[in-house]
Automatic annotation (TrEMBL):
It comes from the Bacteria. This is DOPA 4,5-dioxygenase. It comes from Vibrio zhanjiangensis. Coiled coil: none annotated. PANTHER family: AFR070WP. InterPro entries: DOPA-like_sf, DOPA_dioxygen.
Amino acid sequence: MTFSTNIHQFYHAHIYFDGESNEFAAQLRDQVKQEFALPVGRFHQQLVGPHTMWSFSISFGKDDFEQLIPWLDHARGQLSVLIHAVTGDDLLDHTDYAYWLGVPVKLNLSALDVR
């Protein structure tokens, strides 16, 4: 599989889950924490920001991209993952600078802090 070009300095990966995939997502979150020395966000069993499903996030940089993304694509099972740049422009980050592993999840873009 080919991944989008790694052109930004910082990224977020948002891993989406629901009640049925909750346990698998929790195990995946633990695996990420064991495999990578990266900040892993809270395990949100509620809607947060523009995310219309439960989620947790991983913050990573340009140097982590090539190792994390293929690993995450393999380990995610059937979970959808939003990968987006962190540039300071939330709307662009979640649209033009974003792509998906798995099935895209509709985002609530009106929840973003548009400057």
